[in-house]
């Protein structure tokens, strides 16, 4: 029998705009969700970084993290992630060191090696998007130094980050970042919610190559998964039609707000898009509590032991989203 007693639960928010909303309403929803998850006992709440996306309000990620910290009491809040090609490590360290000073032991720094946007927008962000990807391992090292003890630093220091030891997490959607996380003995977060294709291989590489560090004595794996739980399988699949529309709008290049669920998905999507949506649902934790419980067991059977599930939830109805996250916590607690 699978033992999931130590499995932690967290959530990632891309801060999407729901159909009919203004930007401010989406930001208010971001805070309301954080407060609900804190009440439910979630481990952490991360906010993504995306640019030039009209359906998302998560471009100024550090500002949103601070805003969330100010409106919660205990839940850890962090980045899923800060995309290093877009930012000088010194600035990142100063920002997160300042937040860690204001909110001790509550700030996480998840780091990604992609720009999180298209190449034209990446150029407008004023960093070299080509070299940035290749410099990722060295920039991770710089950040570790900035957050470390003063006697291990050079002349340029990221005050007040010195000695704050803000925890770093390496994000990935392919096998590349698994090597970086393993060699540095850092936690590894795989984006299974949108890129499950290389997930199994990436997890295996990370565990096999992991080198113990001052941060971790053994591997720590977090997996991002789409999680939509309803009272019945049918309700969950109905709610998931909002997620399907979001995913397809991205492939169409339209990036529309989160749409209400529909019983006519086959009328909205092409046959090819409908098949893509069905495949995404298969690789997600979607269904009733009993169905998702079995899917989670099957997931662990196939992918091996993991330490944390980071749920991603595109649900149009805010109360249904809360209920889904609460049901997911119930599933983990009951195992």
UniProtKB/TrEMBL annotation:
Keywords: Oxidoreductase. GO terms for molecular function: oxidoreductase activity, acting on paired donors, with incorporation or reduction of molecular oxygen. Transmembrane segments: none annotated. It comes from the Bacteria. Residues 22-299 form the Luciferase-like domain. Its EC number is 1.-.-.-. One of its GO terms (cellular component) is cytosol. To bacterial alkanal monooxygenase alpha and beta chains. This is LLM class flavin-dependent oxidoreductase.
